[in-house]
């Protein structure tokens, strides 16, 4: 024990000596030129000083992370490196965040345990893009499969689904977090004890929570309506649970009415998104495609088409 | 003559440069490059004048550019670890490929807007906007590749998919059926894999190893969407 204390003490002394010896001007100019070097120096300094004062490891960890975050936001708004700080993630980090969004646990805060004060925009952006394209592709594939079962359905590629899916997914993943963030900021003004998430963190929570829908949409290719609904409910449950568990520590301090209303609105919007996807992209026979055949083809195909009508009603 | 007078001064100013830079004095370190830049543009202009393209015939100029584009096509079709595609980039090849692809994807009858494949403008926007997004993404992740180099590689690597589109149009002339679809599926999958392999061979080295997957995934998505557009194309 004593030897360990001595060791740390010596280390500090060395560090202070080093600091005293090196002129201040030189170090600051160097850190301006080379950001990584300055970054490392600050992290070591803050870790040491907080470790000496605070016994709790988590506190110092948090403080160091905060310091790190302040360091990161140094570059100006119009510089490229400012935006690079939003994409400062590794493959393992992104995979860890996706795993965290897939397996929500009560009391396991996504922001605290996975983002750790470093929200990224890579995940939200590419998860949204993937979801939009997967929605459009599988929406088309269901039509192809329906045509395979029932040759009377005329299939033609529906490219407009890409546009619709892209616009709706991106709007949901950016506008809802914006509204949520604004609301929480307003509530913070009312109730001072609340510490809301930043806008980027909110976007990150929503972006990663949409990941569950990608496998769900692929599984919706199975043309069994009750199975589709089960998969939909499962994915929605997982995603909404992740959102609620993450938002709960923030809204807990607020009044019970506001907290309940906010969480139910969040879950309701999420359910609306899933329902919208299901009803718009996965109708087994959209009405647009039923209209043209009677004009082109003769009467027999028109009769053959009528038995498919109940099928289209069944899942929706 | 002017260069002859200035060039002896050049080594004289060049030698104290590291000495002043060591002092990190702003006023001096700013002075030196100004003096250096006076001589350098003159020399480069003189050197350029020797190999000027002004005197050669138009045919030579066009043939040289076409040869460069053709050489890059060969590099895509037979991807090796070589940086010809990266060193002298051009956007002629991507433009040709993109326009060809969009023209072939255009359906004969533009009946209703809601019920049809992608229009010319949509293909054009997907290809260019997608390539720009992927490039920005790889730059933001910290890749050491220039913006247009990446655009050039992504554009040239559409070549296998354009070939797939050509084959699909030829196959579609035959009678439709499951065999027809299977042939098209096979062709598109092979060409899709080819595009991915070619583009990653050129682009993957620009990223640090722990971020390579993050940079390659958007490329995969990009070519996947283009392949899907090709596969679902039906002329009517």
Strand content of chain B: under 5%
Oligomer: heterodimer
Residue stretches of chain B low in confidence (pLDDT < 50, at least 5 long) are 1-17, 22-26
Elements of chain A, N to C (H/E) = HHHHHHHHHHHHHHHHH
The number of helical elements of chain B comes to 11
Tell me the structural class of chain B. Answer: mainly alpha
How much is the average pLDDT of chain B?
78
What structural class should be given to the helix and strand makeup of chain A?
mainly alpha
Tell me the Rg of chain B in angstroms: 25 Å
Portion in helices of chain A? over 70%
H/I helix tally of chain A: 17
Give the H and E element order of chain B. Answer: HHHHHHHHHHH
User: How large is the share of residues in beta strands of chain A?
Assistant: under 5%
Structural Rg of chain A: 27 Å
- How would you sum up the major sheet of chain B? none
Largest sheet of chain A: none
Number of strands of chain A: 0
Helix content of chain B: over 70%
CA-to-CA gap between the ends of chain A? 70 Å
How would you portray this structure in words?
Chain A has 316 residues and is mainly α. Chain A has helices spanning 2-21, 24-33, 35-53, 57-72, 80-84, 91-102, 110-115, 122-149, 160-190, 199-209, 213-219, 225-251, 256-281, 287-290, 292-296, 299-305, 309-313. Chain A has 2 domains: 2-74, no CATH class; 111-313, no CATH class. In chain A, helix 3 runs antiparallel to helix 4 (57-72), helix 9 (160-190) packs across helix 10 and helix 11 runs antiparallel to helix 12 (225-251). The longest helix of chain A is centred in the middle third of the chain and has 31 residues, at 160-190. Chain B is mainly alpha-helical and 236 residues long. Chain B folds into 2 domains: 2-50; 70-231, no CATH class. Chain B is 74% helix and 0% strand. Chains A and B meet through helix 5, helix 6 and helix 8 of A and helix 7 and helix 11 of B. Chain B: The modification N-acetylalanine is found at residue 2.
């Amino acid at each position: 024990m004593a030897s360990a204390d001595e060791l740390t003490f010596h280390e500090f002394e060395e560090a202070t000596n080093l600091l005293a010896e090196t002129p201040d001007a030189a170090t600051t100019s160097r850190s301006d030129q080379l950001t990584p070097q300055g970054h490392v120096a600050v992290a070591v300094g803050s870790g040491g000083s907080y470790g000496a004062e605070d016994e709790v490891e988590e506190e110092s960890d948090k403080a160091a992370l905060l310091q790190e975050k302040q360091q990161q936001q140094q570059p100006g708004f119009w510089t490229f490196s400012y935006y690079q700080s939003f994409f400062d993630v590794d493959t393992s980090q992104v995979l860890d965040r996706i795993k965290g969004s897939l397996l929500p646990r009560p009391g396991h805060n996504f922001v605290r345990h996975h983002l750790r004060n470093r929200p990224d925009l890579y995940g939200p952006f590419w998860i949204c893009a993937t979801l939009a394209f997967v929605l459009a592709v599988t929406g088309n594939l269901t039509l192809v499969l329906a045509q395979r079962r029932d040759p009377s359905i005329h299939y033609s590629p529906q490219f407009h689904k890409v546009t619709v899916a892209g616009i709706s997914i991106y709007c949901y993943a950016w506008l809802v977090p914006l509204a949520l963030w604004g609301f929480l900021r307003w509530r913070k003004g009312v109730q001072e004890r609340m510490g809301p998430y930043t806008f980027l963190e909110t976007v990150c929570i929503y972006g990663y929570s949409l990941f569950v829908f990608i496998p769900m949409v692929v599984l919706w290719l199975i043309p069994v309506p009750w199975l589709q609904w089960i998969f939909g409910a499962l994915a929605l449950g997982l995603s909404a649970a992740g959102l609620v568990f993450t938002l709960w520590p923030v809204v807990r301090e607020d009044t019970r009415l506001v907290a309940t209303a906010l969480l139910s609105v969040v879950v309701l919007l999420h359910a609306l998104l899933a329902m919208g996807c299901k009803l718009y992209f996965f109708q087994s026979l959209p009405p647009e495609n039923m209209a043209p055949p009677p004009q082109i083809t003769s009467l027999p195909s028109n009769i053959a088409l009528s038995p498919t009508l109940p099928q289209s009603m069944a899942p929706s | 003559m002017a260069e002859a007078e200035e060039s002896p001064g050049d080594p004289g100013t060049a030698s104290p440069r590291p000495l002043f830079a060591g002092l990190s004095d702003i006023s001096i370190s700013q002075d030196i490059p100004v003096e250096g830049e006076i001589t350098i543009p003159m020399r480069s202009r003189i050197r350029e004048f020797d190999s000027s393209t002004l005197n050669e015939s138009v045919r030579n100029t066009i043939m040289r550019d076409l040869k460069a584009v053709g050489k890059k096509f060969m590099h895509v079709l037979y991807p090796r670890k070589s940086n010809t595609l990266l060193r002298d980039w051009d956007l002629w090849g991507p433009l040709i490929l993109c326009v060809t692809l969009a023209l072939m994807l255009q359906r004969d009858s533009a009946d209703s807007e809601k019920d049809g494949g992608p229009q010319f403008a949509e293909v054009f926007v997907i290809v260019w906007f997608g390539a720009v997004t992927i490039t920005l993404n790889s730059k933001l992740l910290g890749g050491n590749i220039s913006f247009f180099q990446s655009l050039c590689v992504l554009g040239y690597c559409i070549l296998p998919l354009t070939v797939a589109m050509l084959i699909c149009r030829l196959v579609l002339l035959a009678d439709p059926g499951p065999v027809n679809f299977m042939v098209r599926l096979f062709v598109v999958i092979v060409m899709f894999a080819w595009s991915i392999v070619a583009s990653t061979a050129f682009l993957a080295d620009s990223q640090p190893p722990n971020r390579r997957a993050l940079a390659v995934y958007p490329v995969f998505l990009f070519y996947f969407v283009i392949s899907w557009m090709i596969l679902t194309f039906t002329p009517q």
